[in-house]
Design brief:
Blueprint (H helix, E strand, L loop, with lengths): L2 H32 L1 E6 L13 H4 L2 E5 L13 E7 L3 E9 L23 E7 L7 E7 L5 E7 L16 E7 L4 E9 L13 E10 L6 E4 L15 E6 L5
Parallel strand pairs: 1-3, 1-12
Antiparallel strand pairs: 2-3, 3-4, 4-9, 5-6, 5-10, 6-7, 8-9, 10-11, 10-12
Length: 248
């Protein structure tokens, strides 16, 4: 092989290595972005609403729960989730396409509902301790406006015992039967998370879930797949980051 051919061959290999490195960096960056959910700041609290077209929710951070527990696609059940925060509260809005609702008979919304997770529900798991990740809070709401909040400690044999904890969070729900979409909103006091003065750039540990349909057709929808049969896998949580409103 001539010297010219050797030089050209080395250049081609060098170029291929550069391309592979760039693709690797981009893939890592994309994966990292999928681990972070930005919640955007609002200057003041508002009445809790499920109106996704409102100014409040239009300016929210957005992510999607679109995988099953083992990373498989959930197709039409892909769920949009929005978030905002103020100096006192953290807000979430779930936009949930459905085919058939699986609802608890005789719902009660004035008090929390134990075992709400057995029915159609949207859930936020939220932790503030990056050292002891087995302790976190769980917030649930149903299409009927039922709710439950739990103080989870996975070191205990029955972590559901944490349901006696009360955070003071508020929910709102609405079902659009014509479009087959239900909307669920939460307002969680930062005080319930042990946060006195939230700041832009602050981060928390989070995962987001939804359960859809009767037992025979149950679909479990996740933001960060747990790769196990349970949602309670804190090692698989991502990050919720408080941010300001982007400049227009």
């Amino acid at each position: 092989m001539s010297d010219g051919s050797c030089r050209r061959d080395r250049k081609r290999r060098y170029f291929a290595l550069i391309c592979a490195f760039v693709l690797f960096v981009l893939s890592v960056s994309f994966a990292a972005d999928n681990d972070v959910f930005d919640s955007r700041h609002a200057s003041e609290d508002v009445a809790l609403s499920t109106d996704a077209s409102s100014v409040f929710w239009k300016n929210a951070g957005v992510t999607y729960a679109e995988k099953g527990k083992n990373g498989e696609s959930v197709g039409r059940y892909r769920t949009e989730i929005r978030s905002r925060w103020t100096k006192d509260n953290l807000y979430f809005l779930f936009i949930c396409p459905y085919e058939t609702l699986y609802l608890r008979p005789q719902p009660k919304t004035a008090e929390e509902t134990y075992d709400l997770w057995d029915w159609d529900v949207a859930e936020v798991f939220l932790g503030t301790d990056f050292n002891n990740i087995r302790k976190y809070k769980e917030f649930e709401l149903s299409p009927q406006g039922e709710w439950i909040d739990l103080d989870i400690d996975l070191t205990k044999p029955q972590h559901e015992d944490g349901w006696t904890w009360n955070s003071g969070f508020v929910v709102a729900a609405r079902v659009d039967r014509e479009s087959q979409v239900w909307y669920g909103a939460m307002r969680i006091p930062f005080a319930a998370l042990g946060i006195d003065s939230p700041k832009s750039g602050e981060e928390f540990r989070i995962n987001l879930f939804r359960s859809q349909g009767p037992p025979s057709q149950r679909v479990e929808i996740t933001w960060r797949p747990t790769m196990r049969e349970t949602f309670h896998v804190p090692e698989r949580f991502g990050v919720l980051r408080l941010t300001g409103i982007p400049k227009q």
